[in-house]
């Protein structure tokens, strides 16, 4: 009986250890090519491939969870997942409430897109709520029109609600390319933020360092640059 109890205890402990190594990755699933939901209903995109490889190198079993952007940090803090991997730019303001990994996507350009190259970027400009682009627009003197999802920010330009949208250039480029001349870039690109990083609860130093080690190895052997080129094209900034 004692042996059975001991065996049961050891099994429970080993199960607990295994469970502790399962890490939940929280993403938006609506920001291609960083992350999106494919036709099979699965998370896909650059961050899916990057995240799976980072977990493998860190020796972790990872599960993917989707969450709306506007509550993505509160739900990390509430324990609904363990890591944010959602095209989140590293900023000083966010670093007050979460800890970031080193960046896995370099500082990239943001850009305006409108119906014409002369669109008024000091007029009404759409941006996704809670982004560094929204903060930039609010401080630029333009009238900020915020939306929960990135698709809605582009739709606002098409339906005349906004003169232009301001977002990551890499996100906007496919819209411009596929619009058959309906949409165009306006003005010069703007560099914002410190690149894209994973976000962690401030108590999860050990987990953050595991991912940092994986990111460093993936940068060193060229894996990150290969994934960036695969999902964003050869002209995108790389490490």
Task: Describe the overall structure.
It contains eight helices and 13 strands. The longest helix is centred in the N-terminal third of the chain and has 19 residues. Helix 2 crosses helix 7. The N terminus is likely disordered. The protein has 239 residues and is of the alpha/beta class. The strands form three sheets. A five-stranded mixed sheet has the order 5-1-6-13-7. The chain has a five-stranded mixed sheet with strand order 10-9-11-8-12, sandwiched between helices. The protein folds into two domains: 132 residues, Periplasmic binding protein-like II (D-Maltodextrin-Binding Protein, domain 2, 3-Layer(aba) Sandwich); 83 residues, D-Maltodextrin-Binding Protein, domain 2 (3-Layer(aba) Sandwich).
């Amino acid at each position: 009986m004692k042996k059975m109890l001991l065996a049961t205890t050891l099994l429970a402990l080993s199960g607990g250890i295994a469970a502790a190594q399962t890490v939940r990755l929280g993403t938006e699933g609506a920001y291609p090519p960083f992350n999106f939901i494919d036709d099979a209903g699965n998370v896909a995109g650059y961050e899916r491939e990057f995240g799976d490889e980072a977990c493998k190198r860190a020796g972790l079993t990872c599960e993917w969870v989707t969450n709306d952007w506007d509550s993505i940090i509160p739900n990390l803090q509430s324990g609904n997942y363990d890591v944010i991997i959602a095209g989140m730019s590293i900023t000083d303001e966010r670093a007050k409430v979460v800890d970031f990994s080193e960046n896995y996507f370099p500082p990239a350009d943001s850009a305006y897109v409108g119906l014409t190259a002369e669109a008024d970027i000091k007029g009404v400009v759409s941006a996704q709520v809670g982004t560094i682009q929204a903060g930039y627009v609010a401080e630029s003197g333009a009238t900020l029109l915020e939306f929960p999802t990135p698709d809605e920010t582009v739709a606002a330009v098409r339906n005349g609600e906004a003169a232009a949208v301001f977002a990551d250039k890499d996100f906007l480029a496919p819209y411009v390319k596929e619009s058959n001349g309906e949409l165009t870039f306006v003005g010069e690109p703007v560099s914002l933020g410190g690149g894209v990083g994973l976000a962690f609860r401030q108590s999860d130093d050990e987990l953050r360092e595991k991912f940092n080690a994986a990111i460093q190895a993936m940068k060193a052997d060229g894996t990150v640059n290969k994934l960036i080129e695969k999902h964003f094209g050869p002209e995108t900034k790389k490490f």
